[in-house]
């Protein structure tokens, strides 16, 4: 039986291992950390705090992820949460960005316009600036790779407060 070595136990490595195993190929998975999952992993530290390796978000556009979770038997362990981000503000206050359960980009439009973080002008400028990415082609989006967020924001006339209050929070 052929054997394949996979280096890395992130989602890509795990998905590859499962596909190969399903095809009858013997797999050896090598991961240097004590936990699998790569950027989607978390663990408990010595103080009992839960530490995330990366942001644990699932978006509806991840079409292959839910079937994968079902296939490997972990779907029922997923804890679904509201798509709400709390942004810490000075003085101990916070602002809430809620992405409702409607298709993108409508959910983003609603989140960025229905909040108490931005002024009315910041909401309008952000909406029009983000629209270029929502309606732009993949080729357009690829042209942005060389540009900083600030350069992009200025080019699209998004109010400075949007960057200061959200992206530099």
From TrEMBL:
Chain ranges of the Amine oxidase domain: 11-167
GO molecular function, one term: oxidoreductase activity
Pfam annotation, one family: Amino_oxidase
InterPro entries: Amino_oxidase (IPR002937), FAD/NAD-bd_sf (IPR036188), Zeta_carotene_desat/Oxidored (IPR050464)
Protein name (database record): Amine oxidase domain-containing protein
UniProt organism field: Kouleothrix aurantiaca
């Amino acid at each position: 039986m052929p054997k394949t070595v996979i280096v890395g136990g992130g989602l890509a490595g795990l998905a590859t291992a499962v596909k190969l195993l399903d095809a009858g190929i013997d797999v050896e998975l090598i991961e240097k950390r004590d936990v699998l999952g790569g950027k989607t992993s978390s663990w408990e530290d010595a103080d009992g705090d839960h530490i995330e390796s990366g942001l644990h978000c699932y978006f509806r556009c991840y079409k292959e992820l839910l079937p994968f979770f079902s296939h490997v038997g972990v779907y029922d362990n997923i804890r679904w949460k509201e798509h709400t981000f709390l942004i810490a503000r000075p003085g101990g206050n916070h602002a809430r960005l809620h992405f409702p359960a409607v298709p993108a980009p409508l959910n983003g439009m609603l989140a960025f316009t229905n909040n108490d973080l931005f002024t009315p002008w910041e909401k309008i400028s952000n909406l029009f600036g983000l629209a270029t990415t929502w309606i732009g082609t993949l080729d357009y989006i690829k042209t942005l790779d060389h540009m900083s967020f600030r350069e992009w924001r200025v080019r699209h006339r998004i109010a400075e407060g949007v960057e200061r209050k959200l992206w530099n929070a």
